[in-house]
Amino acid sequence: MACGQQKIQSQQKNAKKQAGQKKKQRYDQKAAAKAALIYTCTVCRTQMPDPKTFKQHFESKHPRTPLPPELADVQV
User: Looking at the keywords, is Isomerase present (predicted)?
Assistant: First the structure.
């Protein structure tokens, strides 16, 4: 019977450990990705993570529109 009791204790210990790991892994990837998108295109309202990508987007998608002043000094 000792093996049966040890098995139950082991299962309980493992369940507690799994619950603890699940709490640590609670990382919201959607919120983190949304927070990383800080630049917004003034024409099409598309969000981008950095000014280099923003400038590339603006030059390729909106070539006739004048470049915004915040992108004037960005190197591609």
Answer: no
Contact 46, 37 (CB under 8 A): no
Domain boundaries, the chain: 34-63
Tell me if the pTM is above 0.70: no
Cα separation of 48 and 34, whole Å? 10
pLDDT tens for 6-57 read 888 899 999 888 887 776 666 678 888 888 889 999 899 999 999 999 999 9
